[in-house]
Request: fold
Amino acid sequence: MTNPTPPTSPKKYLPYSAILVLAANTMNGPGITTLPDVAADAGLTLYVTLIVLSVTMASFVCRRMVYAMWASLDSEESSDVEHQHGEDYESINKHDSIQSLSIDNSDEGEKTAAAAEAGGMDEIIPGASSPDKLIHREHNQEESTNAPTTTATDKPAEGESLLSHKDHDENMAMITENVLRPVLERTSIVGQSREAYGKQASIYTAFTMVASALCLGLAQMMLCAAILDGMFVALGGKSCALGLPSEESSSFLYCTTHSSMKPYSGSGAPTSLISVGWVIAASASVALGSVDLDEMISVQYFLFGCLVVSAVRFSVVLKGMADGLDADGMMDAVNDEGVSDSNDSAVNWFVGPNPFQTVGPIMFNFAFIVTSPPSAAMAKKESIAYKALGMSCLVMGILYTMVGLSGASVSNAVRSGMIKGGDDSNLLSLILLSGGESGGPSMLDLFFIGLFGFSTIASVPVYCLLAKETLINDAGVAPFPSFLLSNVLPWILVALTYNAAFFEAFVNWSGLLILGYANFSIPLLLDLKLKKVRAFRMLGQINKRVCSDDGRTTAITKGVLISVTASITIVIVMSILDQ
Reply:
């Protein structure tokens, strides 16, 4: 008789709201500032349609990714049973069908079959005769929190029969509170690729995940610093930075009075700069990156609130600016013959002038999926994880729709030269023009610009966490060097290229080539592959029912995978042809 398993330390859980907020904050990237332009190019109806399709697609991919993570628990339990019986099921992966399964010991096979016919399968393999246990996730049935669960450490000792139930009540009393959850190292995108395709494939996936985190992080870091510098210009009249002497100036100090998302452009400053905005954003980001995910959640709540109220305020301001343009008769000019002219400031209600160029920017606003496994693995139940991720897509889709529709006409007016002083149709630049001829924006609008700037910092630690966990778990890098590589090095790269003209193009192209496939194609591909790999580890009859009942979901997943991958490829090809 073995001793009862000692109590384990309490597990940390993330509630529904925390997972939702973390996911929403990671979608608050540079793409949101381009949405007025995107809506004007797409046309209002097409813009809303693309948002709805993107929300649906991202929610579906999140659902399949979470399922693949939590389905690993069934696979691990099957592996435990396999280990206890001494049967080698690894060879099943080499067969095309479960029908090829053979058991070396024919006597044990006959006993097992007889037990199954007599309804005794539960005694041979606990829980194996319950198909619902394997297929309930496909049918969105929530697991009961009261059901007793076991961990990998709760295996019977070697030589002890699986039929032994001694000390069962004592063991169950201790492990009932221990809810079984996926192990992040095994169920992250990299871990899933290792299980599905082997170690070599996981190395390539690890590089892809780090590259994705780097693309997302660098773009967001640059946006944070630029917003804060622009806010200092609006408040104090200028913002300053340190840089090496250039051909135009021998000073180490460079100042700008240009309030935009490229504050030092045209100021004669060198490529590498350490600005006031950079110092504040980097300090806040590194501080947040030094704590665990659950320890920064209160800050994430606050920053998400900053995002929501800022987006609402920006929409109100932009709607007021658009109404002012309509009142001045600028949006629907009428010629001498009484026919409405289609001038450059008008926004098409259905399809805009550049519809195909808007698919990529809208889709990539939802490119957060690679960052969600850490928070999904800390959910108490599978249903909490995928519902929170899906709701975050819906919430951000509403914010994207609101910002894009309210700012489309103002963006068109700026691009057509109808608003004085407008040289940039970026969202924040449009807000800075809200004062009109009377001067700059109000102090209230500057306050919300500042809140939005701080809200963009929220996603940076999550991107850095993805890179750090990948370096630690998959590259074998020690924790401290991985922290420096993921949290400090990117900010150094931003400082080195802060005023570079090529940086924006680098971020756009790297994101275009990496983020689409990494966030949408790879999770679906892994889900399809893992179903087969894990199915071959299970025992035949039960698994046949799983495969049969799962046919519709598999077909839908394949259809979405093909559609998404084709869309991403078309966007890349069209972007190349436009250059």
